Amino acid sequence: MDLNLSDEQKLLRDSAERFVAGSYDAAHRRRMANDPLGFSPAVWKQFAELGWLALPLPEEFDGLGGGAVEIGILMEAFGRGLVSEPYVATVVLGAALIARCGTHEQKQSSLPKVADGSLKLAFAHSERAARFDLAMVATSATKTAQGWRLSGSKIAVLDGHAADEIIVSALMHDHHGPSGRIGLFVMPATVPGVAISDYARLGGGRACNIELSDAHLPEDALLGDGHDALPAIEWAVDRAMAALGAEAVGIMQTLLDTTLDYTKIRKQFGRPLSANQVIRHRLADMAMQVDEARSMALRAALKVDAAPTERARAASGAKAKIGRCARFVGEQSIQLHGGMGVTEELEVGAYFKRLVAFDTLFGGSAHHYARHAELGRRA
Amino acid sequence: MDLSFNAEERAFQDEVRGFIASNLTEEMKRATALTPSVFSDPDIGVAWQRALHRQGWGAPGWPVEYGGPAWTPAQRWIFETECARAGVPNVNVMGVKMVGPVIIGFGSPEQKNFYLPRILSGEDYWCQGYSEPGSGSDLSSLKTRAVRDGDDYIINGTKIWTTHAHHANRMFALVRTGDGPRQQDGISFILIDMKTPGITTRPILTIGGDHEVNQVFFDDVRVPVANRVGEEGKGWTYGKYLLEFERGSGIASAKLREGLRALADLAESDLTGRAIDSPDIATRISEVEVDIDALEMTELRVLSALQTGQNPGAVSSILKLRNSEIRQAVTRLGVDVIGHDALAVEPMRPLYRLNHEPAIPEEMLTMVPEYLNGRAYTIFGGTSEIQRDIIAKMMLGI
């Protein structure tokens, strides 16, 4: 039992915090918000040079073999600067799915390119009718003589506009009809029959909706051997929720620090706001919730390789709890900044919006408390 | 980073389990489960303290030279967790965890030789004389006065919320021996024999129907000056040291988890008409479970820091507050889980020695009293409002 950071982990934390503090400021974030790409390719290249893109990938495919704790350290630092690079889409979701499901050839052709920054990925899974149910997939993949034919609609695909290859989940059909198995297909973004409409994402970065109309893919586009991919999807999303939870902790910590500073400086009725007990207690509650969120993000990270039910309960518990803390800390940060907190002139709103996006992604607190309860049923 | 225990720690875990299996009687277990107040009655609690003492585990936090077992923080965690899982009696902490560390830290050699062994063995049963009717959260405004008369102090005044004063043979108290520029000045830390003439104890019944706390009156009570711990007028320093123990020694999540498990068992049983089938109840159980998970991780983070000799810092001030709030959430949920049966009042105590058939199943008897008495969790040992003041000051620097 040891929850102290190792020396290597401390180095990673320090270098990530330094990088984010040096490269991300309000002006950069404003530029990115109006940028059609939503992030900086130059920064992405630096991520590759720093080894962050290789961090969790297996060593035999040019990765560094890091775990969820290291990802969490990086993500918390990203949160502090509202980093908008497609890290979760490419590394935490995309590359992880290839590493888990892919054949040796598929891993060999993709993962080293992720590590060197030349391949960006996205994961297209959510569908409007499914809401947050990961098992519900209507997009179809029909076996053809040459390979596969995909049709359907995907929504809220993180950073899909920037991806070179998109991993699409689809219900596999053979000549008997639907097989009941979900397959994962690696689809180049340029395939005919694919229409991508992207939009600016709440809180920074971009997302897209994807229409698939008879998009033809070769046989080997299917990741792995065609086993049902649902367990892998749940695994990857649980990992992503742990990573996003750590990012939310970084965002909350920045909001707490900023709000604390503001209440010390801002004077009303002849004294600083922080001299009022009602304000001090509010800040104490915010600090406590940031700390609880930090505990839950760490817990989820430490359990990503546990048995599926334990892992999923840790991930859902963390997502639910951190989501609730995030809303509280975010809303109170605005409240304590007064009218200025509601304006675009301060960055409080930008951080708050990223927290709202976090709470929504992969299902909000209510959904995850319910999932946690369902998975906890004993009989 | 690693959540699992190493081979040595797992061996220790087995040792603790073995000890509990051979010392925890069914009677103790049932009595503990059916005690809706904070501490077990002495017949149960002292029996368990004696068993611990025989094993050399009577005072886990004490230095070895005074009889502590020299456990690592991880071992303490394992011990507390296994005890909570097994449902061992809640030993009154006033001796081992409160006055013991003060005597070790500031007592004279004579005081150490006399009192410490008697705490370990359970021979002495302590109560705490801190709060007064006029001094709650503003503790240092206390007025109970000790006036020097030769080799004695003569004490007059009153103490309140004195847990188990009706069982205790000794009290440690903060009394005013002088006045200084600050109200914290002139307070002394005194050990009092409860059989001394002039002491009377009045029971206070809490809203759950339990007699756990009292008011104690002092009328010209003569206490030897030799019973003062440390210097005259420095009692506030010692008292604060002790309050740190009361707040910070937290390994509480295991007990909370056990309480929630008992409640979830009830919710899944036909006794409650399977309350768990209501989505509201199921979700609320998950909400509380997740809060316990978060508290447990914070405890483990503090423990990891201690393990490597680091100062865990202000994060430990969060532990008391969250523990008390989550305990209340568990008891609130308990009332909702038992549904209609929450209407039944059982006035007899102890609940494990009723001489009649209770109106509701035994497993439910503690739910309402625990909820009602549990309102005190966010009041004693520094109210939640005081805790938030501490967090603002220590953690946020405002």
Automatic annotation (TrEMBL), chain A:
Gene3D superfamilies: Acyl-CoA dehydrogenase/oxidase, N-terminal domain, Butyryl-CoA Dehydrogenase, subunit A, domain 2, Butyryl-CoA Dehydrogenase, subunit A, domain 3
Cofactors, names only: FAD
GO-annotated molecular function: acyl-CoA dehydrogenase activity; flavin adenine dinucleotide binding
Domain Acyl-CoA oxidase/dehydrogenase middle: 122-203
Segments forming domain Acyl-CoA dehydrogenase/oxidase N-terminal: 6-117
Keyword list, A-Z: FAD, Flavoprotein, Oxidoreductase
Domain Acyl-CoA dehydrogenase/oxidase C-terminal: 235-364
Classification via InterPro entries: Acyl-CoA_Oxase/DH_mid-dom, Acyl-CoA_Oxase/DH_mid-dom_sf, AcylCo_DH-like_C, AcylCo_DH/oxidase_C, AcylCoA_DH/ox_N, AcylCoA_DH/ox_N_sf, AcylCoA_DH/oxidase_NM_dom_sf
Family named by the database record: Belongs to the acyl-CoA dehydrogenase family.
Protein known as: Pimeloyl-CoA dehydrogenase small subunit
Origin organism lineage: Bacteria, Pseudomonadati, Pseudomonadota, Alphaproteobacteria, Hyphomicrobiales
UniProtKB/TrEMBL annotation, chain B:
Domain Acyl-CoA oxidase/dehydrogenase middle positions: 127-221
Gene Ontology cellular-component annotations: plasma membrane
Tagged with keyword Flavoprotein: yes
Taxonomy, superkingdom: Bacteria
Record domain Acyl-CoA dehydrogenase/oxidase N-terminal: where: 7-123
Membrane-spanning segments: none
Swiss-Prot/TrEMBL keywords: FAD, Flavoprotein, Oxidoreductase
Homology family: Belongs to the acyl-CoA dehydrogenase family.
Name under which the protein is recorded: Acyl-CoA dehydrogenase
